[in-house]
Amino acid sequence: xxxxxSEKKLCLICMEEHDVDTVEVVETEVFKDEEVTFTAxxxxxxxxxxxxxxxxxxxxxxxxxxxxxxxxxxxxxxxEIIDIREKYGVSQKDFSEILEWGRATITRYExxxxxxxxxxxxxxxxxxxxxxxxxxxxxxKGRISEKAFDKYYHEASEQFKKKxxxxxxxxxxxxxxxxxxxxxxxKAKLSLSKVVEMINYIASKVPSLxxxxxxxxxxxxxxxxxxxxxxxxxxxxxxxxxxxAVPEGYEQxxxxxxxxxxxxxxxxxxxxxxxxxxxxxxxxxxxxxIEALDAVILHLGNLSTDEIVHKMHREEAYKCxxxxxxxxxxxAVKLTLN
Length: 338
What we know:
The chain has helices at residues 55-73, 78-87, 92-99, 105-111, 117-128, 130-139, 146-176, 182-185, 192-205, 211-229, 250-253, 287-300, 305-314, 316-319; strands at residues 2-10, 17-31, 34-45, 50-52, 209-210, 238-241, 244-247, 260-266, 269-275. It is α+β, with helices and mostly antiparallel strands.
């Protein structure tokens, strides 16, 4: 028994005025065929050595028992459901409306009723996926007030921005899920953390680094390391495009957290000039990988975009790969860099 507070008042157990303790007691009960342990709250009379459960405590203890059950069977607790709703700043009534569950459903889940597994899955997806919640919110437009809609949309958009990097990672990993041929992956598992470090390392050594040049330097770095060590650095898969080798998913890769660039206009065309992130430091790349990057930077860092594209076009790997097809790493043995 843990005493939370003491208050002098009329004790409803012994009907005398004295210090009545509010206490916590660990209890075990069977609920829905599951034995659960939870912390209950009571008033305690030291005169009679008995506990009293007020009406409010009955509600609190019932919820504590049900939350213990939810935890045991892998469902969200009432507090976790509240946290999900409050993350988006949504009222109980409007949350139920957005989910089309009936007006009082969320209120019941947060207070006394245990949700079913299907509803639990929906709540978990909303917690993890703000983009999906934004879609549900759009469908609910007209069923909630315009002012509430604008507020919820703003909050959900902010949550979406926070999850943006994970969406990018998921989309890149989805692209690479089907790549099992080690001659295309360079016998390395895709490591986006290494890719981000490679970009930052190259950007820290090469001034005026633009997208086309960066993509070629990534390819050269991976292939040089493969030539020297039998494995690429990043696990990226490259395609032979008209301007040379380009990694699959490059459009998402350059948007990953930790990749920094300025947008530069060249007449009517837009370009990207990469720079190292302010907080950049080498954590993932090992010594042999840094050596390969340094060699590529030494030999190619001062080349213009046109010069590095021209050099790429002379590589055996590019000449022997059909346009828009994947470039095998087996050609790395014939790379012009050593």
